[in-house]
């Protein structure tokens, strides 16, 4: 076994031990196919007020501009599919990824451990870890690394486990064995396009971010537009509709990451509880959650909009 194969095997084994669902590796190089797509998407203002998407265009497409001398992009998936969901079906809904602790912190800690492992067992390896917090096209890299294909809802899909997982990367200056791309298995299915409450999937594989419920309830800092009243399908933070209706997600299995378990009170909260939520309850229930990003006032704005 040559060094490349040996190191690749070591890294994938350790990733599995750390609880990652899967690990794929691709060559750190310019994302040629993504460049025109990203440019087109930005030119049509599909990023809405997410102006940060316009920054670092070159870095988004070329990992060697993010990590000097980088050779490999290691993509990792971490399952967040919950065992149980909210009990009151009339209560405002929360995206499943936000049930537990903020994934940024949970995954960063695992990536740190993986980086140390690589340095301890292989030697002097430099690189950076990314969790949805830098100009990295996560889904494109995961697809290039053979972990799945980009579905018509623009999320990464995997035949065995669907799409309820987080994506993270380690970009390092070490040559490894690269995985092969998997084929698209969406076929003629249009379940996600048909189900989207705001018609945000404007054509197969293209989502207008400025029409997405997740954008309105998380990213948009101003007042919610009146023309969207009644179209949120009762979502107060994020939206899972396109994933919930996807046939591949019938294969989703509950995660086994204790840090992703919801706060004991969260799933039992009724419609009334949410409508009367106080700042103290908000702080207690979402103390370590990604929901903190929208702040108490933001969540209140979203809940009031659903009335």
UniProtKB/TrEMBL annotation:
The keyword RNA-binding does not apply. Keywords: 4Fe-4S, Cobalamin, Cobalt, Cytoplasm, Iron, Iron-sulfur, Metal-binding, Oxidoreductase, Queuosine biosynthesis, tRNA processing. Cob(II)alamin binds at residues 60, 132, 156, 167, 214, 239-240. Its EC number is 1.17.99.6. Its main location: cytoplasm. It is found in: Cytoplasm. One of its GO terms (molecular function) is metal ion binding. Residues 177-206 form the 4Fe-4S ferredoxin-type domain. TRNA binds at residue 221. The keyword Metal-binding applies. GO terms for biological process: tRNA queuosine(34) biosynthetic process. It catalyses: epoxyqueuosine(34) in tRNA + AH2 = queuosine(34) in tRNA + A + H2O. [4Fe-4S] cluster 2 binds at residues 196, 212, 239, 242. Monomer. Catalyzes the conversion of epoxyqueuosine (oQ) to queuosine (Q), which is a hypermodified base found in the wobble positions of tRNA(Asp), tRNA(Asn), tRNA(His) and tRNA(Tyr). Belongs to the QueG family. This is Epoxyqueuosine reductase. The lineage of its organism: Bacteria, Pseudomonadati, Bacteroidota, Flavobacteriia, Flavobacteriales.
């Amino acid at each position: 076994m040559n060094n490349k194969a040996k190191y690749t095997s070591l890294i994938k084994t350790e990733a599995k031990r750390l609880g990652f669902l899967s690990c794929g590796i691709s060559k750190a190089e310019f994302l040629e196919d993504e460049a025109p797509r990203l440019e087109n998407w930005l030119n049509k203002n599909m990023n809405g007020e997410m102006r940060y998407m316009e920054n670092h265009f070159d870095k988004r497409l070329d990992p060697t501009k993010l990590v000097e001398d980088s050779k490999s992009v290691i993509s990792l998936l971490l399952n967040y599919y919950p065992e149980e969901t909210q009990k009151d079906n009339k209560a405002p809904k929360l995206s499943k990824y936000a049930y537990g602790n903020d994934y940024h912190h949970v995954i960063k800690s695992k990536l740190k451990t993986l980086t140390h492992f690589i340095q301890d067992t292989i030697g002097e390896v430099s690189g950076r870890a990314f969790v949805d917090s830098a100009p990295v096209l996560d889904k494109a890299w995961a697809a290039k690394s053979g972990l799945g294909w980009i579905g018509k809802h623009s999320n990464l899909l995997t035949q065995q486990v669907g799409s309820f997982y987080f994506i993270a990367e380690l970009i390092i200056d070490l040559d490894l064995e690269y995985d092969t791309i998997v084929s698209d298995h969406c076929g003629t299915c249009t379940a996600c396009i048909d189900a989207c409450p705001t018609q945000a999937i404007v054509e197969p594989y293209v989502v207008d971010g400025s029409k997405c419920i997740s954008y309105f309830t998380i990213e948009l800092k101003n007042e919610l537009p009146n023309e969207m009243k009644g179209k949120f399908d009762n979502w107060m933070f994020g939206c899972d509709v396109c994933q919930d209706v996807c046939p591949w997600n019938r294969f989703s299995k509950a995660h086994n990451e204790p840090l992703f378990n919801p706060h004991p009170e969260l799933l039992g909260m009724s419609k009334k509880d949410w409508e009367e939520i106080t700042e103290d309850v908000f702080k207690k229930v979402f103390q370590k959650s990604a929901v903190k990003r929208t702040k108490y006032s933001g969540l209140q704005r979203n809940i009031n909009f659903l009335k």
